[in-house]
Amino acid sequence: MRIDKLLANRGYGSRKEVKKLLKSGIVKVNNKPVKDGSAHFNPTEDTVTIHGEVIEYKEFIYLMLNKPPGVISATEDSMHETVIDILELDDAVYNPFPVGRLDKDTEGLLLITNDGGLTHQLLSPKKHVPKTYFAVIEGEVTTDDVMSFHEGVVLDDGYKTMPAKLVIQKSGLTSDIEVTIMEGKFHQVKRMFESVGKRVIYLKRLSMGPLQLDESLELGEYRELTNEELELLKNHH
Ligand code: URA
Q1: CB-ligand 1 contact for 104 (6 Å cutoff)
Q2: DSSP per-residue letters across the chain
């Protein structure tokens, strides 16, 4: 692999900036300065350093974000801040994108990656990857609603959802629930509650397939997936 490609991959700036960096002689391969960007190195055998710090190449990045409300799940938007805008430059250089969408006001687990293959697997309607949400509902959620969700409810556009698991945690003027859905229709959880005459007033995603939200992440914070989480995701069918 070319040394200038590695530096661009790791966010060391524009082509011009990378060239300048190389020219200064601080980039070393196996401890020898390399000034020519077209020079090749072997990512598995050679050690590339800048000021002694090892620069490793990676093709893919996998981030778990605790999405804050008010930002949209897109890569670009002319009006609003996106989940990509809140990433650090070191991560944004990988051109990652959100895996699926959470509404602007929805919080919680959002996977952000540049791995198109994994994204496709997770979003494919055929795969029925379960997604669990915590929600606060205006009004009293009842066991009738649990049964309706279990059978599948008809949305405003006539679509009948697959069975969903609804668990009531607290029921009253407002109710706390957890719901697990196997699909990802537009505004699905909100529309499912609308179909039983209720309104979602707070929504947070807790899990997607085997991936659970790390509750130690504050809203707007993110971290790379652990190897274990990544393996679980990749092996999930
Ligand atoms: N269902 C919704 O209604 N909104 C979301 O953001 C996710 C699921």
Answers
A1: no
A2: -BHHHHHHHTT--SHHHHHHHHHTT-EEETTEE---TT-B--TTT--EEETTEE----S--EEEEEEPTT-BSSS--SSS-BTTTTS-HHHHTT--EESS---TT-EEEEEEES-HHHHHHHH-GGG---EEEEEEEES---HHHHHHHHH--B-TTSPBPPP-EEEEEE-SSEEEEEEEES---TTHHHHHHHHTT-EEEEEEEEEETTEE--TTSPTT-EEEPPHHHHHHHHT--
